[in-house]
Amino acid sequence: MRTISKKQRRWRRPLLAMLGGLLCSLVFLTAMLGGGQTAFEFSRITSDALMLREGGLRLGARESSGRVVLVSFGETSAERLGGQPTLESDRKLYQNLIDANAAAVSDLRSMACSGPDDFEANIRPYLDVMREVSPGGNVSRDVFMTLDVPFDTVMSYRDQIVHHGMSFRAPTMANRHSRIFPLALHDYYSLSETIPFWAVRKLAGETNRSQQEVYVELNESGVIDHWLSRFPEMGNLLQLASGSESLEPNPNSTPYSTGEKEVEWLGFGSEFPTVSPAGVWLDYGFQPSELLRLDYAAVSEGDFDPALVEGKAVLIGLELGFIPASERYDIPVRETQADVLDVTGVAIETLLNGVTMRPVATFVTPLCLIGLSVLACWLAASCRGRWAFLGVAVMVLGYVAGSIWAFRNGWFMDMAFAPVSILMAGILGVGIRFFEEIRWRQRITDLFGRYVPRAVVNQLVQQSELQSIVVGGVTRDVTVMFADIRGFTQFSERLQPEDVLEELNGLLEVMVKCTFDEEGTVDKFIGDAILVLFNAPLDQLDHAARVTRVAYRIQEALRAHKSGLSIGIGIHTGKAVVGNVGTPQRMEYTAIGNTVNVASRLCDRAAAGEVVVSGEVTKQLSDEFELQPNEPMHVKGIAEPLATSRLVGIREPGNE
Questions:
Q1: Average pLDDT of 406-431?
Q2: Can you give the pLDDT at residue 466?
Q3: What is the DSSP string of 539-574?
Q4: Nearest to 315 by CA among 47, 72, 611
């Protein structure tokens, strides 16, 4: 039987567990990093389900600022007005909102100009109304001009023209149209921030920014350099106005200032050079459905509470049923699509909160995935049952809790691959422990099956603390019994060898049966003698009484044996080193020490049919046992004479 040293045994399972956890984590890490965009989307969908989805846990939910109001035109408005919005209804709408002290009014209903004549007939009247209602430029609309409209004419309405940029379908991936809101847009005439940034600055009391101011702000944040790296053809447009001091594009990415707050921006793949390939990841912890919505017709006719819009940003648009499919957006919080009002409203809330979502540092998720997976596998392999389950569950929940905390602070962590990796590593650890337990039980069975009853073996395999016995030894109190057949040498000379063995085995069978009845351990057979241990390997509080009963029963059983032989028995209690002794080629479970030697000497002193016990054994026996003191005897290796007694009998319960 192959043996393993204590040191090897101590490190074997932890090393296997850590290696298993490492391999498990590498599998999931490879899937996460090698899966590219598919893996990222899977992780994002999982995160959305936990953090944002309506009807779900909504762990990432935030309370809105209450500073954004939506005004939408739908069926109710059409019925009330008797048709579509008109210039006059828009004028009343803008005027009522400004009179109610709305801080910013932005009309997201896009208007497009096909030429100078169209501009004069259909665009300029609306722009004039907005400028008339709010000379300070607090009312704007998303308007696009063709190049043949005079430059000076268009620039005179620059305060009234602000784009939301969503209609350009800027991100190349459709499912990100509603996730990333572009910072800026450069139409045919000028560079400007998109509506959410314009609205937030208005809420902060700022005046409209010039093209030069927007350029400088974008450049200081590194957006201009990023824009030009993606679209070099924008070089002629992305520059300061003629006569201004030139600025080299800043290559360093820093947070973008929105006045009161600074927000992190991130690059994305844009299909249109005129839309900045840089934006903010929107925080849908703010539910679009929680934003206050007012009816267009009611506001236009003054049928609303002015306090609802006072000091707030008001967005105007069409309800979902009145817009084309190209201007509907998938959002992560619900199955039904959203309109540009919903997305822009969430964008403003995100900027007001100042926490924009961004991925954590590249090393964080792999480090957590590997470290926690290795730890989970080690813990599951080291602990039993519910403790292993509890430990792994705590680590999975701890990672999820950390991810929730990170999410609420604007950091996006993987919530799909890492938790599953930790869980699978824990399961692997349980498997490692299971197979190690099987090996351990097999070793115990192989080692003790020859020495102790099957019931004792079944108890042994449940006690992992006995590993020290398997791989080495322990010092413990034991009671040792030596039994030697008297006159066997002369007896064997009269018989054939096979008859000798048959008689010997018959005698030993009686001794083993009596020993097993009291759950003793048969250490070894030494010719015509037997060595028996009690209180090893299992604890037996009454080990001295057990072994004394065994000795008495053996003597009683052999008195009428057909061979006519008898035995002498010696018993002693004391400390001994008990464990596995030998080499990898041959191992034996045995006891070593002076206690064994003394028991052997007592056996030598016992006459045929006698049981001699030491004084140490006598101290542990009750009145149940009848003992007759002997003269003290001298034993080799012990300076003082040894007190001994002879076992006379055992009183039956109830008999005095």
A1: 92
A2: 53
A3: --TTHHHHHHHHHHHHHHHHTT-TT--EEEEEEEEE
A4: 72
- Token pair 């934003």: residue: 291
CA-CA distance, 31 to 34, in Å (whole number)?
A: 5
- The C-alpha atoms of residue 369 and residue 26 are separated, in whole angstroms, by 9
Amino acid at residue number 434: F
CB proximity list for 260: less than 8 A, separation 6 or greater: 200, 204, 354
Q: 533 - beta bridge partners?
A: 480, 521
Average pLDDT over residues 65-84: 95
The Cα–Cα gap between 143 and 132 comes to 17
Neighbours of 588 (CB within 10 A): 13
Rounded to whole angstroms, the Cα distance separating 486 from 490 reads 9
> CA 127 to CA 309: how far, in whole Å?
22
Return the structure tokens found at 152. 């000076």
- 198-222 tens-digit pLDDT: 999 999 999 999 988 999 999 999 9
β-strand partners of 182: 279
| Cβ–Cβ under 8 Å, residues 113 and 119 | yes
Structure tokens at 610: 């006698």
Closest CA to 196 of 104, 260, 62, 311: 104
With residue 54 as reference, give the H or E element that holds it: none
The model's confidence at residue 463, banded by pLDDT at 50, 70 and 90, is low
Q: DSSP letters along 444-463, please?
A: HHHHHTTTS-HHHHHHHTT-
DSSP per-residue letters across 212-225: HHHHHHHHHTTHHH
pLDDT above 50 for 2: no
The two tokens of residue 627 are 């003992």
For residue 246, is pLDDT > 60? Answer: no
Asked whether residue 411 carries a pLDDT value surpassing 70, the answer given is yes
d(C-alpha 209, C-alpha 192), whole Å: 8
For 51, other C-beta atoms within 10 Å of its C-beta total 24
Cis peptide leading into residue 537 (ω within 30°)? yes
* DSSP line for 581-646: EEETTEEEEEEESHHHHHHHHHHHHSPTT-EEEEHHHHHH--TTEEEEE---B--TT-SSPBPEEE
**Spatial separation of the C-alpha atoms in residues 20 and 26, rounded to whole Å:** 10
Q: Is 448 left (phi over 0), alpha (psi -120 to 50) or beta?
A: alpha
Identify whether the C-beta of residue 427 lies closer than 8 Å to the C-beta of residue 396: no
